[in-house]
Design a protein that fits this description.
single chain, alpha/beta, 4-stranded parallel β-sheet, two-stranded antiparallel sheet, 8 helices, about 35% helix, DNA damage, UDG_fam1, hydrolase, Uracil-DNA_glycosylase-like_sf
Length: about 220
């Protein structure tokens, strides 16, 4: 992980030995089988979105587990790989809410100040949630707590029951929580479609005097 403002504040939330445990875990899993994303992209969310730039957090559960999909940013895949169903539904809602985004790689969002954070940062090939409960949750909870402590206004977009469990970590009255059903095909019609999270986020940021996210970037 890069030495940065993130690193210092996350360290304050965790026992001193925890970073060593993470490195041991990474050494073990990346030498014993196929794991996604590529090791150099495990911490891409906090490496791409500087702490002082965070305006929105979109919380996912764990990375995509197919070849070439995961790039360390929740819900995002490279343009060279077909968009998975959840991402297709996110872009469909975005089109209805704000407009059509030409590319499905969400790196531009991360550069705009959207922290695309998964609760688990790695996954074994073909095994959804295969690393859940092993190492990552205390670390990513610490990331959420660091963002919760920011003075600048932040919008948390929580899709689905798993993400909504993290509400307990979000206590700052200056921040906004936008929640709905998950964009997966199993639940998108139960309240995700029509929830307008992107325009709600921008309206809140605008009301606080903060610049809006260019969701079509």
């Amino acid at each position: 992980m890069e030495h940065s403002a993130w690193h210092e504040l996350i360290k304050e939330q965790l026992p001193e030995h925890y970073f060593g445990k993470i490195n041991q875990f990474l050494d073990q899993v990346y030498t014993s089988g196929t794991v996604y994303p590529p090791r150099e992209k495990v911490f891409a969310a906090i490496q791409t979105t500087a702490l002082e730039k965070v305006k929105v957090v979109i919380l996912g559960q764990d990375p995509y587990h197919g070849p070439g999909q995961a790039q360390g940013l929740s819900f995002s895949v490279p343009n060279s790989v077909p968009a998975p169903p959840s991402l297709q539904n996110i872009l469909k809602e975005l089109a209805d809410d704000i407009g059509v985004k030409q590319e499905h790689d969400l790196t531009g969002w991360a550069e705009e100040g959207v922290l695309l954070l998964n609760a688990c940062l790695t996954v074994p090939a073909g095994q959804a949630n295969g690393h859940a409960g092993q190492i990552w949750e205390p670390f990513t909870d610490a990331v959420i707590k660091v963002v919760n402590g920011l003075d600048q206004p932040v919008v948390y977009i929580l899709w689905g029951a798993y993400a909504r469990k993290k509400k307990a970590l979000i206590t700052n009255p200056n921040h906004l929580i936008v929640e709905s059903a998950h964009p997966s095909p199993l639940s998108a019609y139960r309240g995700f479609f029509g929830s307008k999270p992107f325009s709600k986020a921008n309206a809140f940021l605008h009301s606080k005097g903060s610049s809006e996210i260019d969701w079509l970037r």
